[in-house]
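Below is our example:

___
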Amino acid sequence: MHGKLHQHSNAIPVIGKKCIGCGECVAKCPVNAITLEGNKAVINPDLCIGCASCSATCEINAIGNSWDRSNFLEKLAEYAYGAQIDKTNIYFNFVFNITDGCDCMGEHMELVAPNIGIFAGTDPVAIDTASLDKLQVVTKSKMFDTARATLKHAEKIGLGEMEYKVIEV
């Protein structure tokens, strides 16, 4: 729990134009970082812990995240690295049911790609790179390019290598 919270710390949500000032996010915020000013919610970034409770609560999706305010993408790689230190693992990526949003949103999202397959190997960075490359070839889209920053950082800290060889079975 504490690691997940730390990963998301500094990833301060942003209240969008769709906000109607219903107050649901104010009631859900565990640290009282959100107030209503007129008919719009306002987040105090000095109090916000980046838990995303407000985003998950907002029924009209008026709350998003500004990834440029945090090093969240690098933290993903660092926590993955910490979880696998001194272990021999086999990694599997099931590249199915791909959407453009995070599964933590807890809502139905439209698929953006067909089911591509399963990737397996002992290098998590190579597996993720191969999965991303195949996804982008199939979708002819760069929508997941932000993942490249995580993969580059993962390689830099020694989690694995972006170079890979695919062997189809």
Q: What stands out?
A: Strands lie at 13-15, 34-37, 40-43, 63-65, 91-95, 117-121. The radius of gyration is 18 Å. The helical segments are 2-8, 24-28, 53-57, 72-84, 124-139, 146-156.
